[in-house]
Design brief:
Largest sheet of chain B: 2 strands, antiparallel
Number of strands of chain A: 0
Order of helices and strands of chain B: HHEEHHHHHHHHHHHHHHHHHH
CATH topology of chain A: Helix Hairpins
Number of helices of chain A: 4
Largest interface: A-B, 36 and 30 residues
Shape of chain B: globular
Oligomer: heterodimer
CATH architecture of chain A: Orthogonal Bundle
Chain lengths: 126, 495
Amino acid sequence: MTVFTAALVAILYGAGVYMILQRTLTKVVLGLALLSHGANLLLLIVGGSAGLAPIIGHFTGDDTVADPIPQALVLTAIVISFGMTVFLLALAYRSWQLTRDDSVEDDAEDRRIARQLAHRRSEGRR
Amino acid sequence: MRLLLPAPMVVPLLFAAFAVLAHRSRNAQRALAVAGVSVALAAAIAILVVVNRDGPQAVTIGGWPAIIGITLVADLFSALMLVISLVTVLAVLVFAVGQRHSDQQMAFHPAYLVLTAGVSLAFVTGDLFNLFVSFEVLLAASYVLITLGGARDQVRHGMTYVVINMIASALFLTAIAFVYAAVGTVNMADLAEKLGTLPDEFRTALALLFVVVFGIKAAVFPVFSWLPDSYPTARAPVVAVFAGLLTKVGVYCLVRSQTLLFPGAVPGWLLLTLAGLTMIVGVLGAIAQNDMKRILSFHIVSQIGYMIIGLGLFTVSGLAGTVFFIVHQIPVKTSLFLVSGLVEESAGSTALDRIGGLLRRAPVAAALFGLAALSLAGIPPFSGFVGKLSLVEAGFGAGEYTIVAVSLVGSILTLFSMAKIWNGAFWGTAERPTPAIAGTTVKLRTPMLMTAATAGLVAVTLAIALFAGPIYDLSHRAAEGLIDPSAYVQAVLSS
């Protein structure tokens, strides 16, 4: 079971990174969502094997009990990544409203340098 | 202590809630924000006094014993960071209030207070996961601040900022998961004892993961390029507080994690190489720019390199230099950005070919820029000189002559690009003047409060230079506590 979840974590990280490297904003947002899911799942499985709920009086000495700390941590992390993803979606929507375009724009300085290079090359040819 | 230690974080959060409720009245929001930050600053000063007298202080939250519950802990390093950050936060807040139009959105003051709370929490938390939460708190507020207004440029550059920080957060969470899997705790004092038992290779791998995570936050080479891309489009007070504080929170966490959690796990030569490259690449980037805000943004990166030197040397004098340098850098960097805000306010632009001759028309701004710029470049007798001198001495003491040479070259280049701003903005005439510049010879007016806030912060940097002796002593003792964290660990585990 742990091997299966570990593989799932790896797939989520891989797919997330691949999506973040795309030029479409929506894909970047989805990639970040996948990446944070991967991190949350990883945090959950480091708590070790599944067991009874760790409530006092709910288990006897020889029962296996789940480690509550990673669960508490992952709950917090899920809420945070949910909030951030929503903010990013709102930002992507605002960007689409302003530009009617879903792609990540080039850096202004990069474009300036590219223009200068092109200019210099055409000068050189003459 | 039970009330004092959480105060710099709890009070701004509480006042942020009040500021949301008071969203109809901008003046009420302003009063609440100034009051919240002032109370936090008073608490921070009290913490510094107590920690200076009695050593590291720890408090457990909610009555849970340490290790299970969340611990807040302040040693000399955290207390120093807390005080200087909150001084800077207050000055920038006054600047924003004086500027009038920058706090027109009702979200500004609440977000600003939440940012303050997040920064304070990052400095005092003694729990690795809580540190992650504090980062998210300050980042969430900073996302709002950097995109406030929702103009096209802000959204585009804000996007870069949000995406890169979300990736860093996911990596941070991954690192925490690995640490928990290895030793089963996230309390930093407990980790300090338990991580030492891990195999060396595994410790180094974990430590490097933390270097990457905090390196992104601190804008260390080679993961710095998001910073000069996203900062210059934000409004002057916002970019000033980001420039002063957010990268330094990253450096603080880098220092804390490499001294408390993983001492000696990352080889010194690697950190020194990163430091040297950060300094040189940052300052070369600055020289190539033609806009005041962009030049200053690249300088943030360059100065981060100096802070890493002490960590790479890993000696008491090296770390003392680092602590002093961060304390000097926070107000200096912020005041330079505030001056660029003054320039933008009076001349209508920060592009160096569109402004010029401001020395005659905005002499106060020119004087303030001159003082802060000389301090940044490290000219004696300003505070930057003391910081750089202590780092250079520590470098000689450890026999690392290459990094000393690189840092001196970096200083000269810094002076060069400061001179470029001076020539472009304050001397000469504008090549393509803005309407505010063209055809006028009268003095340009800026609101008094903005100038006063900037002058106050420049005065703080001068005070650091004036009291360099006592502050360096404090930094030295803070560094001793970083090299030998037994008092820190003791304070947490016995609380």
